[in-house]
Amino acid sequence: MAEDRSIAVDLLLTNADFVVTCDKAHRVIKNGAVAVKAGKISAVGPSHEIIAQYRSEVQLDMSGHILMPGLVNCHVHAPMTLFRGLGDDLPLEKWLFNLIFPAESRWMRSSENVYLGALLACSEMLLGGTTTFCDGYFFEEQVALAAEAAGIRAVVAQGILDFPTPDCPNPERRFKRAEEFLSGVNQTDMIFPALFCHAPYTCSPETIGTIHSLCRHHNIPFLMHLSETSEEVNSVKAKYGVTPGRLLQSLGVIDRHCIFIHGVWLDDDELKTIKDRGSRLVHCPESNLKLASGIANVPKWLDLEIPFGIGTDGAASNNNLDMFGEMRTAAQLHKGIFLDPTLCNAAEILHSATLKGAEVLGLEPLIGSIEPGKYADIIALSLKSPHLTPLYDPLSHIVYAAKASDVRHVWVGGKQVVYGGTLLSVDVQDIIDSVEKLSREILKK
């Protein structure tokens, strides 16, 4: 009997119609396979080659599916799923100050509510193919616990503002609160702590400088909403005499630690500074459209080669956490604005939701593509639907045709967390029941 020289692995995913690797070369493998061992990708290639080289007690036939990396949602306020649909068709400032901040003050003082809202968000994201998200909110320790329970990878950024917040009623303690968070949440292969300095209109130069210094000291991301609306730009100019971007430049806080969210009203000089200093951007097209904040000049970001990811923003302003819908909007929006169908092509947008998104979060060596050595964060899209038939170009299908509901299987770090469209890690119906009960209380008030 011939000696079996194949390599033993923990999982073999074989016979996928396509493996869309999302690597830098945009490699797509027809009839592809992936080998996984100890939570990481051992090999990817044509099925016949992988099957010949590797063996596993767990071998799954992925015929009729696309295998691709899990999506990276670069900006979320996960607990705000509790406010989904609570206030629509309002401009950002009125929505935020008249509705959301008061609701948070009333309902997010409870860390249990934060945990529940975050767990609902994690469930929605995993079922829709997102395997990593970047969150910015209060009680972020609870968001980390929810992410761990659901089995999703997360950057958890503790929110800091200059006025009372649910987990820091005394703003004089805001820096202490940031330090408490950083000492209480340890980085693991699943959880990555960061700080979220809300915006230039809610944080003073002192706050911005101090929080940025903490991020630099701990070598963690510094998150901030930046130039989201024209009203923000005008209010900052009225107070400080410069635009938000130039204010940050004068404070010396634009560097490789920074992840700036929205950037709708950044001008060319500000974008060049962001590029030159190694900062990154996040595009949230659907939230920006819904709040009438404006439309970021993403083609300019691409021209300048500024790394950027895609985010849904919170469910209170989107109103879902569907990264497939976000990709489709991002790809189509700028074509219509600039009357150029070549802008923001499918490959560029898909990269922004996978490999580039991972780069924005500082996680590109670990996730974002199906390549040997990276964590096996993999999703399987079923192709057995009328809206995905016929299939000529899998990248086009993922961006322009696929839906979150097409996700059938999800692995995070090689562990299957979604099977056949069912979340395995937590009881989704129990979460829904708990949120519906709480929502009735919210509606009464």
Description:
By secondary structure, this protein is of the alpha/beta class. It folds into 2 domains: 7-70 and 369-423, Roll (Urease, subunit C, domain 1); 71-360, Alpha-Beta Barrel (TIM Barrel). The protein contains 16 helices and 19 strands. It has helices at 47-53, 92-107, 111-127, 140-150, 174-184, 205-218, 230-240, 244-251, 268-276, 285-290, 298-304, 323-338, 346-352, 355-360, 394-401, 428-444, and strands at residues 7-8, 11-20, 28-37, 40-46, 54-55, 59-61, 65-69, 71-76, 130-137, 153-160, 191-197, 222-226, 258-262, 280-283, 308-310, 378-382, 407-412, 415-419, 422-423. Strands 2, 3, 4, 6, 7, 16, 17, 18 and 19 form a 9-stranded mixed sheet that branches. Helix 3 runs parallel beside helix 4, helix 12 crosses helix 15 and helix 13 (346-352) crosses helix 15. The radius of gyration is 22 Å and the shape is globular. It starts with 6 loop residues before the first strand and ends with a helix. Its EC number is 3.5.4.28, 3.5.4.31. Belongs to the metallo-dependent hydrolases superfamily. MTA/SAH deaminase family. It catalyses: S-methyl-5'-thioadenosine + H2O + H(+) = S-methyl-5'-thioinosine + NH4(+); S-adenosyl-L-homocysteine + H2O + H(+) = S-inosyl-L-homocysteine + NH4(+).
